[in-house]
Write a structure and sequence with these properties.
It is a single chain. By secondary structure, the protein is mainly alpha-helical. The protein has 2 domains: 3-48, no CATH class; 57-263 and 277-365, Growth Hormone, Chain: A (Up-down Bundle). The chain has helices spanning 21-26, 62-84, 90-97, 101-129, 131-148, 155-183, 189-198, 203-217, 221-241, 247-258, 285-303, 308-336, 341-362; strands at 3-11, 29-37, 45-48. The chain has a 3-stranded mixed beta sheet with strand order 2-1-3, with no helix packed on it. Helix 6 (155-183) runs antiparallel to helix 13 (341-362). The longest helix has 29 residues, at 101-129.
Length: 366
């Protein structure tokens, strides 16, 4: 002798069927759960309004989204600058630390190994503890080891510091795109990824320029310390402005705060259909063709000692192709592996960074 007593709960887990996407983001939605009562004559709908503690990243203002995307892009910029900034100072470092050529190659390339291996740990931690705490801790880890690299002029500390700072810096590689995916839907992801990944492409270009100037005027030790200071500034800004973006963590906080430990509500399909991840694949094709064209152009023009503009044009073609291919690939991974985007992104980067660390040892075979 029991009847259903329906409880209406406010939740962001279920998408409203209102006609516009703006209403979807701004309107609190609802789902129902049944509860039995001993009174057979009672069937009612009781509104249970939860406090507005679910800080949905997709409902943030456009200004906050762009600011967050630019902030995490600086994280990736620092990671790529750290990889190339010491290249003009390799001979000076080798002389001061009394390193042979092979050991100096290890100092340079072991950072790439850290960038390749770090995302596996960082991605898993971000999906367990949230994006923000992992992002912050990784930057602290990078600052610590990058600062220690030149201390004491120790070859062992230099090698260990380069590897561990690469692990910490890989948070920019591992989490920049997933954080953007947390804030934007599939229909907005293309432009948002362009904002978040544009600045890092300057890292390999301006890193050697800064490294050359500073090596001549301040000493190679400041190559590490200036980047640590820059990253500390980014970390300080993030401490006051960066919010958590990972939905399962936000939902878990909501349920814990309200004392509701029921199973998570399932998402309904958004009104108007869904985006198929495979639609991103054709966008990779132009980049796949432009990259080898740019490399061949660059290699031929450099070998023939043509004008520097011709050489740079080949580099430009390669960078444009690389950018187009990487954007489409990242967008595909984010659409295909929504809740595990960080892990998928880490897996896709591992081989490329591993090869970046291996190629310097293979130059004698070419």
């Amino acid at each position: 002798m029991a009847s259903e007593h329906t409880v209406v709960r406010k939740s962001q887990d279920i998408v409203d069927t209102s006609p516009t996407s703006q209403d979807v983001e701004k309107t609190a939605t609802a789902t129902t759960a049944t509860h039995t009562t001993s009174d057979p004559n009672v069937t009612s709908v009781v509104p249970l309004i939860l406090p507005d503690v679910y800080d949905d990243p997709r409902a943030w203002s456009a200004r906050r989204k762009i600011f967050t995307a630019v902030l995490v892009s600086f994280s990736q910029l620092i990671a790529l600058m750290s990889a190339s900034v010491i290249s003009p100072a390799l001979q000076v470092i080798a002389r001061d630390l009394d390193l042979d050529t092979s050991t100096m190659q290890i100092v340079f390339s072991i950072y790439m190994l850290g960038l390749g291996l770090g995302p596996f740990l960082i991605a898993a931690c971000s999906e367990t503890f949230g994006r923000r705490p992992v992002w912050m801790c990784s930057h602290i880890f990078y600052i610590l080891w990058n600062t220690l690299c030149p201390v004491g002029s120790s070859p062992g500390l230099m090698i260990a510091g380069r590897f561990l700072s690469g692990v910490g810096a890989s948070v920019g590689v591992a989490l920049s795109s997933p954080i953007v995916a947390d804030m934007y839907g599939p229909e907005e992801r293309g432009r948002s990824l362009a904002v978040a990944t544009f600045a890092p492409y300057f890292g390999p270009a301006i890193g050697p320029v800064i490294g050359g100037v500073m090596t001549q005027h301040t000493g190679w030790q400041w190559l590490f310390w200036v980047l640590s200071i820059f990253d500390a500034f980014v970390l300080l800004v993030a401490f006051f402005t960066l919010r958590e973006t990972y939905e399962p963590i936000l939902r878990r906080r909501l349920l814990n705060d309200e004392g509701n430990h029921d199973k998570e509500f399932r998402l309904r399909e958004r009104a108007g259909g869904s985006v198929t991840p495979e639609y991103r694949v054709p966008m990779m094709v132009p980049g796949v063709f432009l990259m080898p064209v740019g490399l061949v152009w660059y290699g031929w023009s450099a070998e023939r000692h043509t004008h520097w503009i011709v050489v740079d044009l080949g580099v430009t073609i390669f960078v444009v192709g690389s950018f187009m291919w990487a954007q489409a690939m990242i967008a595909y991974l984010l659409d295909e592996f929504v809740k595990h985007a960080a892990s998928a992104n880490a897996a896709s980067r591992c081989l490329s960074w591993a090869m970046a660390g291996e190629i310097p040892y293979s130059h004698s075979l070419l």
